[in-house]
Design brief:
Structural class of chain A: mainly alpha
Distance between the termini of chain A: 32 Å
Shape of chain A: elongated
Oligomer: homodimer
Order of helices and strands of chain A: HHHEHHEEHHH
Radius of gyration of chain A: 19 Å
Largest sheet of chain A: 3 strands, antiparallel
Strand order of the largest sheet of chain A: 1-3-2
Largest interface: A-B, 60 and 60 residues
Helix content of chain A: 55-70%
Chain lengths: ~160, ~160
DNA sequence: TTAATTTCGATGTTATAACACATTAAGTTT
DNA sequence: AAACTTAATGTGTTATAACATCGAAATTAA
């Protein structure tokens, strides 16, 4: 039980099964994130930047106000304004004003941004192999299900 | 399938089952980390700081060289030197030199550090309830097992 | 022993994240 | 419609993280 985790963290035991689960979630998340960052860095992107581009790509040719971007992010970042500033500098996105609500600062992905996403996509998709190799379809569904149970209580 | 995740990220579909699993791991990790940070911030600690203290507590009254601390961290941080500097300033840890290897910068947790850990422990432990409420013992074991399969291929 | 290589840690620099505050516009209430 | 509350964003500041470099000490090889 938990031998791989023990080995990785060089621990001999865990305080509880809950803690073991918790640590395993953190470790797996870190593992996958590292893989993603490895791929993305070759295109000069960070994970949050990639996620924002992905979110914007989903509504192209429309844009999103900042608040909507945040609410759709995996890890809501407080400083999205300047994150977008950086994407803007690379001309991967563009800003425009909303007609209906003058408070909103809208952002839309550009052609260049879409091209970059398309370039990165195959390599990101291929990271799924870490999951596909390790798990059967049934196992993937079980895993997703168990994870949703953990955070689901607060979402509903 | 994945209704809670869809709702949270405001997406209507996912590219693949692999991606859904991946996102669920990220989201759950973020959820649990937020809960931890919420508790720790009341004691002026960050997650990486807490982890370093926890690691040092495990070998008290001995210490660890910097490199060993990094290898035991959940998310190995490159800048542990200054992370320890900050703990040092709060007198939660102390530095000393190794007798056998003069390159090593050893760090040991202090009484004050141990007291702080003891103060935080109950609240951190109680975060296990998010897992215990959601999952049975069997489910926890299955979950841990599936997660280890994902990152385990590269550890062995 | 000397030279070359590797390991470990600290430091300078730059980029990014976190936090608090200020500003402007919408929406609401009276 | 005027006052009030809420929402959305930008900005200044500070803290932290990431990256590269450097020097000291240990290890290995010649």
């Amino acid at each position: 039980m938990g031998e791989i985790l023990k080995q990785l963290l060089k621990q001999t035991k865990f305080a509880s099964l809950d803690q073991e689960v918790s640590l395993n979630i953190f470790v797996t998340s870190y593992f996958l994130r590292s893989k993603h960052e490895e791929v993305l860095s070759k295109s000069g992107l960070t994970m949050p930047q990639y996620n924002v581009l992905r979110i914007l790509n989903g509504v192209y040719p429309n844009g999103h106000p900042r608040c909507d971007i945040i609410s759709r992010m995996i890890e809501p970042a407080p400083d999205v304004t300047r994150l977008i500033d950086r994407l803007l500098k690379e001309k991967l996105v563009e800003r425009f004003n909303s007609d209906t609500d003058k408070r909103l600062s809208m952002t839309r992905i550009t052609e260049k941004g879409i091209k970059l996403l398309e370039k990165v996509k195959p390599e990101i998709d291929s990271l799924g192999s870490f999951i596909s190799t390790a798990l059967s379809t049934t196992e993937k569904k079980i895993l997703s299900d168990l994870l949703e149970k953990i955070y689901g209580s607060e979402v509903k």
